[in-house]
Amino acid sequence: MTATPAESAVPPEPTAPPRAARSSRLLAERVIEAAIALAGVSTVVIVALIFLFLLRESTAAFLDVPLRQLMGTRWYPIEGLFGFLPLIAGSLVVTIGAVVIAVPLGLITAIYLGEIAPPSQREVLKPIIEVLAGIPSIVLGFVGWVALAPLVQQLGATTGLTALTGSLILAYMALPTIISISEDALYAVPKAYRDGALAIGATQWQTIWRVVLPAARSGIVIAVMLGIGRAIGETMAVMMVTGNAANIPALGPGLFLQPVRTMTATIAAEMGEVQRGSLHYSTLFAIGVVLFVITFGINYVAGRLIGASGGPRRRGQL
Amino acid sequence: MPFDLQSPVRTIQAAADVPGPRPRRAPVGRAVAVALAVVLSAAALSTAGCRSGSGDAADAQAAGTGRAIQNKGSDTLVNLALAWAEAYRGVAPDVSIAVTGGGSGTGIAALVNGTVDIANASREMKDEEMAEARAKGMDPQEFVVAIDALAVVVHPSNPVDRLTVDQLADLFSGRATNWRDVGGRDAPVVLVSRETNSGTHVYFLEEVVRKGDADNPDIFAPQTLLMPSSVGITSEVQRNPNAIGYDGLGYVNPAHEKLVAVGRGGSAPYVVPSVASGADGSYPIARNLYMYTAHPPTGAIAAYLDWVRGPHGQRIVADLGFVPLPNGPDGAAP
User: Fold this and answer.
1) Same domain membership, residue B306 and residue B248
2) pLDDT (tens digit, 9 = 90+) per residue, B21-67?
3) Fewer Cβ atoms within 10 A, N terminus or C terminus of chain B?
């Protein structure tokens, strides 16, 4: 890419190069452009292929298991009970818990880093937070299982392996993403916005809440969505700390203190031994389809949110 | 039945009318899940990698004098299989045996796919698995290699120390949800089980939750915590005063969890699981552990299986807390 604009920006050369050299350069440009376009398109193609593959492998489940049974309340595959509700409920409860914990915490940290902390602190804290994103999920799961679960049990749960334990671990995993990207979004807000707000007499807090945050809104929404995506798709850590009981959690104050089984943990735990080509096998792929549709829905809603607020994305803005 | 050992080597009659599923390639999902299961299956597995890893196998093969036997399957059997493999190096130094876990179904699937020589299983091969193997021209052979008494464990502070099979069925199917219902204190019962793909889970479902009655539709209560490994069960029982779980006797640590005596009901005595009560058949919840080969074994594999079921191999069974086969070595069955 670098060579192309430079080449075309050069004013007409004093002596035209030989025809052959020029046409070969044009050809090279075309090839490079095609390669770049291919790279862009291939992402879309791969996503489409993955979805088609999931659909193909899960057809048997959608055709052979009555819809009423897929919407059932019991997941016990070795006896042919394929109710998705407990798994969907499990994933939702754990993810909502993680979002409720991680989003406010992440935003506040990002605001502190981007708007309040002196540069010396910012230079130290930001790299450390980004390192957190690199901790393998299995390690966090192990910490949750050994250290966090006994603490959660003391909150009055019958066991320490609950949705809350999973939410806490997932929140911790989503935090670096949320902090880092929202902070970048805040940083991208032009300095003139802050100067203007302060010049007309706004306090620092008013500037942050009324001017900077709204201006960075689209970047912050992306940060939150990536955080949620990390949370709903996480498998290993969740499998270790949520108890994996395929039970629809009872609504009420104890909602988060019950064990749950998530969709991802179900696929991971059962795919290893399932008979290939069996109904159970294709049902696990059907769970994958449901998961895919949910993540796609979240991304779509996020896209609409950004579109409704800020109009098309401008350059210089995240 | 657990002690039906009339002929140690049984050729299995496959149900030829069961259609086998289409064999497929690229079992990526399975490989990933196996990797996960291995990670979760205790530190024992990581030492396994060091002791009987591919390095040894490569050495043996490079020397040209021996061969590596690939052995994979049941997590219940993995520690035992490792101990056998290690001891066998003293008997036949030129044969090296690589042991991995992953679960009974994983091992059998690997056997059918031709990637292992011996599959470990804590349950018999299913009809579908047998049909798939036969469709590939295999003739799977079953060997009973040990007996496992399934211990029911509770937290040491739990006053309940004996239960009938009926009471266990009530607890694990969710009919009894408070310890008061079975003579304990007023506290909710926390059920702990292996995952549904574990041979241990299936055995407990059939013999305890359904009390051996194939027509009984009872299943585990939905609140049951499903643990991906034996370690998950022991750690939860050790730290949760209201938990009840079950696992192979060889995995129980009586110093940190309490063994529950189990009775068949009526006037039958309550029996604490042990090597002795497992061997004489008085303990109600005991099962066979199996090794499978794809064809009638020959050479190094046949020698290894004979040794495993012989006096030396069965002494290791007892050392690890499993129950040795009655009547000792091969061919001495009643």
Assistant:
1) no
2) 433 433 344 444 444 343 334 333 333 333 333 334 333 333 334 56
3) C
Do B300 and B171 share a structural domain?
no
Q: Rounded distance, CA A23 to CA A287, Å?
A: 53
Q: Do B134 and B195 belong to one domain?
A: no
> B226, A158: Cβ pair inside 8 Å?
no
Interface test with A, best of B106, B226, B231, B244 (most A CBs within 10 A): B226
Q: Which residues of B touch A73 (CB under 8 A)?
A: 222
Q: Are A161 and B30 in contact (CB < 8 Å)?
A: no
Could you list the residue range(s) of the whole structural domain that residue B232 is in? Answer: 149-286
ipTM over 0.90: no
Tell if the CB–CB gap between A272 and B22 is shorter than 8 Å: no
Q: Which residue is closest to A81 within chain B, CA to CA? A: B219
Q: Where are the domains of chain A?
A: 84-270+291-310
Give the CATH superfamily of A84-270+291-310. MetI-like (1.10.3720.10)
State whether residue B142 is helix, strand or coil.
strand
Is B39's CB within 8 Å of A138's CB?
A: yes
Cβ neighbors of B283 (< 8 A, separation 6 or more) are B149, B262, B271, B272, B273, B274, B277
Does residue A154 carry a pLDDT above 60?
yes
Report the mean per-residue pLDDT for chain A. Answer: 86
Residue B23: list chain A partners with CB under 8 A.
276
Same domain? B160 vs B108? no
Please indicate whether, in this complex, the C-beta atoms of B30 and A271 are within 8 angstroms of each other.
yes
| Predicted TM-score of the model (pTM) | 0.73
Q: Is B284 helix (H, G, I), strand (E, B) or coil?
A: coil
Q: Looking at the structure, tell me whether residues B170 and B125 fall in a common domain.
A: no
User: B236 in the Ramachandran plot: left (φ > 0), alpha (ψ -120 to 50) or beta?
Assistant: alpha
